[in-house]
């Protein structure tokens, strides 16, 4: 069975895991319009081919094609794959409209092929147990069901605004609603015309619908669907009311409890019922832990089991486990809740405060200008009398910069359409935008693809220079001996063990330098050290691990020198990177000369604030924690939050050679690192006490 993958985004890893682990299946190629991302995944999963167009993949005659793109592309890609003779697994929602779903189904019928829709929650452990229990007749027939999904997007606003779901009429809420809705359709059958809907106020970043509830008049009973983008904890819950029992599913914790009427007096039965539920939860927890220990647990929320079920159905000549009819039904309900014409409120950028520009002022665009470094850079450039423009996803974060005189452009570096014209007439572009946490797909979308979008717009507009804020985190310190000198000639780490951030920043640098070679826009890399100052965390992970408001753990003897850069000095380096002539294609390391060790940093913090209390643990304990993190992550099929390689990196004592920046840029730290940190710590203490 030859498998083709179209799309290498956020969840493609689960698809590739499923396809490469199925006996007799072979992934023959991956397609993505960002060829670097396709090649990276092809290398990771030993796939022989990576393409940037679908025709090349279909020329390999795959038996099954996975469509893992935003839903706007589902219909045309599915129809193209079907016409090429492939069965199709298409991600949810099946398509953007019911008409597109119908066209896909018609194409499948003409081709004699099958479509499986990615309603993965149907194949989660708890749901599969519930379906089996209902089919056995031991709980009677289903009367009603309610299903909900809570996800507090406010903790991760970049996901809610940079994600393709913002293009849906219902935004992220619509994308998430497919999951609980798919369970209701599986349990209750098709939904009739009666759909009662309540939508909450748009009160979260991006003016998205925050809450929605719908009452569905279904074939076999009433269903209640609810989604919240501001409730915690993140959780999927399902209650199934049957004639003989209540089934309660927690999709997130993979638990199922069954409550029955006990043959005892009602008051006693209520108390005993709680004990029965507690026993079921305890048993289920130990069972899940045992599976986790044996690496038998599915961490894909049903994606891998559903894909395997589809492959097995094709081999047996049976219908797809989730049919196109179910996918169409889900889209029909979604369009009832969020009509296609429903548009998000128009958001306008705040008007800049009028200010006097210096003669010959440069027009400057800052991407990532609302972050800590970016906002300080913007204010410094405004103070110099430059014409400063800031790209921002929201009006709220940019309001203060607009009040200071910056012109705000609403846009998102992950959505190229919003960047059109942003660099028009600009002399300089600073690219500081980056994801700070998230999956590999998140970093690919924000750092890698986002950099491609920014570079493309800068080249189109004829921008003279683009300055990219690189990182020192990509250097292979774990492979160096203590005392090694690190300068710009040191090659980046190639092991992949430093994590998504370092890998993505490395790829982004390559994009900037490749553009520099094309000769339209000069690319300059400024690799900033660990930037500190009022507005950043005073407990960076390179220094210590915070365990309470007044306590931290220091691993080792505290002798590791820290690559710190005070914010004023970082801003100076960026400005020099934009203004010094003749440095196109060059990279510069930026670390303050006033080097502090971990121990000296914490002593300065204690002198300035009176705390925290420092608990010292041996380095071996740090390695033990990293080992446990690796084991736990491997059992879940995810990347570990830390690993032994990163621990070695953080504990390595090296010297940072910034002589190139001093020689070529004439950069000198004008602000004392020690004095800057004292001001930062005192400001932190004043806020904490007030």
Short description:
The protein is an alpha/beta fold and 690 residues long. The chain is built from 21 helices and 27 strands.
Q: Which key terms come to mind for this protein?
A:
21 helices, Rossmann fold, alpha/beta, 690 residues, single chain, seven-stranded mixed β-sheet, 20% strand, Dihydrodipicolinate Reductase, domain 2, 27 strands, seven-stranded parallel β-sheet
Would you report the number of β strands?
Answer: 27
CATH-defined topology of the domain at 122-294 and 325-337: Dihydrodipicolinate Reductase, domain 2
Number of helices: 21
Radius of gyration: 28 Å
> Helical content, roughly?
40-55%
SSE layout:
Elements: E1 2-6, H1 12-21, E2 26-31, H2 35-44, E3 50-51, H3 54-58, E4 64-67, H4 74-83, E5 87-91, H5 98-111, E6 115-118, H6 125-136, E7 142-150, H7 157-162, H8 171-188, E8 191-199, E9 211-218, E10 221-228, E11 235-242, E12 246-250, E13 255-259, H9 266-293, H10 303-316, H11 324-337, E14 363-367, H12 372-383, E15 387-392, H13 395-404, E16 407-410, E17 428-431, H14 440-461, E18 465-471, E19 485-486, H15 500-518, E20 522-528, E21 530-532, E22 545-548, E23 551-555, E24 564-566, H16 567-579, E25 587-590, H17 598-609, E26 613-617, H18 619-636, H19 644-650, E27 655-656, H20 659-665, H21 673-689
Parallel strand pairs: 1-2, 1-4, 2-3, 4-5, 5-6, 7-10, 14-15, 14-17, 15-16, 17-18, 18-20, 19-27, 20-25, 21-24, 23-26
Antiparallel strand pairs: 7-11, 8-9, 9-10, 11-12, 12-13, 22-23
